[in-house]
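Treating backbone geometry as a discrete language has practical consequences that deserve illustration. No coordinates are needed to read the tokens, only the vocabulary itself. For completeness, the protein is quoted in full, as a sequence line and a line of structure tokens:
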Amino acid sequence: MQEASQVNIFQLGFTCVPQTPGKIMPSAKKILIETNSASIHDTMTPGTSNIGYSKCSIRQIHDIDKWNNSYLHQRRFSGPTSYPAFNYQDYIHEWYYILLVRSYTHSWFIQFKKEDPSIDWQMPVWFLDWWRLFGSTSIIFPTLIQTFYHTYKEEHPTEWPPLRCLSFHQDYCIPWILTWDYDIKQESVDYPLELHRIVRIKWWDSFDLNKVHKPTPATNSISTEQTEYAKLQAKVAALEKELTQLKRRAAAFEDSQDPFEDNNDLELFSYDS
């Protein structure tokens, strides 16, 4: 759909209907940067004032506890901005609005960046909905990554499939390319026309496949531990048998000694661990 047509539907400069007009769009991404949730880099199309493509590195997803467990609790920006504060509802909305820069002719490179080991990557429920709308899927994986993901699924057999796919992208920082466009649909001739948004994703061909190492299946880890434990048990049994034999020899030796002799100490067993 041509961009000119959206002016008749949305406010000028907007690609959606924000719940807080003028606060989130088109100045989106300030909240995500302020909270260190994501780093965003735009690349301009040469010779134009349009953003050609953008890169979003997801660093962390905040839960509501950062806002004193209140959707309305305000957090202030550290620098000057058109509005001084934002709440958790604004934070959630910006995750959805940030990707709606421009339809069709703009693309996003999206990737998780797990740089800080102290960050808790437990996802709030609303981000699972975000992943459903804008996240990747295993369908786009090349053959090698498909093989690794098959092993990953065996390690997490009870995990909800969309969450498992999300976790796989987090653990191995696997990127995806996203674009979107408008579409008009009509369920039947008796229904009005409806405006929809279509999201398309694809694999990033320049991704270094060597960065993804094949996970070790959980069954193999258990099998290895059981093997090592069995070896240890066999070694202990052999040592106990040898100790029993030495005790018998010591008992026979003591019976043959003078019971009144003072120096009758005997070292029964000694070994290096």
Observations:
- The radius of gyration is 32 Å.
- Residues 45 and 52 are 5 Å apart (CA to CA).
- Residues 1-7, 216-227, 256-273 have pLDDT under 50 and may be disordered.
- The helical segments are 3-6, 30-34, 88-97, 125-134, 143-155, 161-172, 218-255.
